[in-house]
Specification:
The chain has helices at about 5-20, 80-90, 105-110, 130-135, 145-155, 175-195, 205-215, 220-235, 240-260, and strands spanning about 30-35, 40-45, 60, 95-100, 130, 160-165, 165-170. By secondary structure, it is of the alpha+beta class. The protein has a single domain (about 5-260), classed as Class II aldolase/adducin N-terminal domain (L-fuculose-1-phosphate Aldolase), CATH 3.40.225. It has a 7-stranded mixed beta sheet, sandwiched between helices. Helix 1 (about 5-20) runs parallel beside helix 6, helix 1 (about 5-20) crosses helix 9 and helix 6 (about 175-195) packs across helix 8 (about 220-235). The longest helix is centred in the C-terminal third of the chain and has 22 residues, at about 175-195. The N and C termini lie close together (about 5 Å). The structure holds zinc ion. The site of zinc ion (ZN) has 5 residues, from loops.
Length: about 270
């Protein structure tokens, strides 16, 4: 386990804690990151409330969303959302799926979600996916690869897609960009709903969206917001320790060597 991979997995847990602390994720929802050295794999927590995830809970999946190695962990049923988006979008390195109450009014009403102030310009155009169009009545979850692929098609070249009566899925080129877009996507939704109570609300212009989003996805902006949200996580005593991440990486390395000697695969968390 190289230090840069251990660092990335730690950052995945930090991103998850931020999104939980910002009330984007609750008992449900999940965040993933593409493997930095193998574009055909990604990391995601085992099945649990995302705020509870530690580095040791991460599993490594291929883009068919199957574990790279046998695991006893239960996996998220909706993990195909992540795998199918990584397949369709080589430029995407991080994905979040959530059911934030800020966006749900738009998922229920079909009202168009649009950037209404400068920071959420990063959500750009937000398409609306209705699972019934291709699959009729379902249990509303995205569990089949073809359902995930359909959602990825609806996302297209955009960065956020609303899902009818369900939630939203957001993509980013990095974990920090994803976190920025996910948090401000939810804040935009809450503010758009509030502003609509005052009267007509329209979007930033296409030119404003382009110029503002280009400015906001630069590291000075995403890092500044990241540092602020990390401080809030620290104040909430939710910050995972880096020591723990590195210790977990070492533990995983040892268990990998041990498992290689065994004919029976044991539970392992990543490669
Ligand atoms: Zn869901």
């Amino acid at each position: 386990m190289a230090d840069d991979l251990a660092e990335l997995l730690h950052e995945l847990i930090v991103a998850t804690r931020i999104l939980a602390n910002q009330n984007v994720l609750d008992a449900f929802g999940h965040v993933s990151v593409r493997h930095p050295r193998d574009a055909q794999r990604y990391f995601i927590s085992r099945h649990q409330a995302p705020e509870l995830a530690e580095v040791a809970d991460l599993v490594e999946l291929n883009l068919d969303s199957e574990p790279v190695r046998p695991t006893e962990f239960r996996l998220y049923s909706e993990r195909v959302i992540h795998g199918e988006i990584y397949k369709a979008r080589p430029d995407v390195n991080a994905v979040c799926h959530h059911h934030s109450h800020a966006v749900l009014p738009f998922c229920i009403s079909g009202q168009q979600l649009v950037p209404v102030f400068h920071l959420p310009a990063v959500i750009g155009q937000v398409p609306f996916w209705d699972q019934r169009d291709e699959f009729g009545d379902t249990n509303m979850l995205v569990v089949k690869p073809e359902e995930g692929a359909s959602l990825a098609r609806a996302l297209g070249a955009n960065w956020m897609v609303l899902m009818r009566r369900h939630g939203a899925t957001v993509a980013g080129t990095s974990l920090r960009e994803l976190t920025f877009r996910t948090v401000f996507g939810c804040e935009n939704a809450a503010l758009q709903s509030a502003a609509m109570a005052h009267g007509h609300v329209d979007s930033l212009s296409p030119g404003e969206i382009e110029l503002s989003s280009t400015h906001s996805v630069r590291p000075p902006s995403t890092n500044r917001a990241w540092d602020y949200w990390v401080r809030r996580v620290e104040k909430a005593r939710l910050m995972p320790s880096k020591v723990q991440a590195k210790r977990s990486a070492t533990t995983a390395k040892r268990s990998k060597a041990k498992a290689a000697k065994s004919t029976k695969a044991k539970r392992r968390h990543w490669s």
